[in-house]
Description:
By secondary structure, this protein is mainly beta. It is 0% helix and 38% strand. It has one domain.
Amino acid sequence: MGGRVANYFLSGFIANEEEKTVYGQPAGVAVMKDGSLLVADDAGGTVWKVTATQE
């Protein structure tokens, strides 16, 4: 990755890993003109908008 470090930026979909239960299931991603992401969650019936924050 050219010396870059990957970071998690979207999590929390797994309710219980041992029981294999989830709160949601990301199924598709679209990149918007402003750089934000739309993530379709087919298990939760939701579309999430993910935007960057300043560190």
